[in-house]
Specification:
Organism: Treponema bryantii
Order of helices and strands: HHHHHHHHH
Helix content: over 70%
Number of strands: 0
GO molecular function, one term: ATP-dependent diacylglycerol kinase activity
Protein name: Dolichol kinase
Distance between the termini: 68 Å
InterPro entries: Dgk1-like
Radius of gyration: 18 Å
Keywords: Kinase, Membrane, Transferase, Transmembrane, Transmembrane helix
Length: 206
Amino acid sequence: MQTQRNPVYGIVARQRLNALLKELFRKSIHICSSFVPFFLGLAYWPVIGLLVAAVIFYSVSEILRSKGINIPLISKVTEIAARKRDENHFVLGPVTLVCGILIAALLLPLDCARVGIFALAFGDGLASLIGKLVGKITIPGAHGKTAAGSLTCFFAVFVSTYCCCHNCLVSLLIGLCAMFIEILPLSDFDNLIIPPVIGYIFSVLV
């Protein structure tokens, strides 16, 4: 005898899968930002110019989208990646992501900016994804952040920093700093803070 499937459970499962796919898509953009230091090393000012142009173009497309005017591809990508809290609002994440990278690149030496950008790309990028996949224990006062996500951030930043400087102590301290910032309830503004702050701390430590 077959048991009837609970339709409510099916709806919840689909919603969870949809949220996970959105997170995977969104964080893949974070991880792809790890290529920026490489391109900065090849052509610094042209890449800076392209990043500024990307922020302006995206901001204009978001303003138009809020008025019901969709820009082909850009508006669709934004719609796919938007969190539930971002629905019918200006999606700020891509702006803070690029601005955080720009601040680090403009204010810090490239080797220090690279560490900060990698912390954002791998640490923050993987923390949210792993937290949603396997995170069970939430951190009090961290607005739903999980222990699994924060530990993932630490290890990802530790490894990426070590690949840059080959210094275990420095990499350990940078990983801990990045994990602390990631835990803070900063919403999308962690994108803005992590690259310059982590890059600056690295510059002090080395």
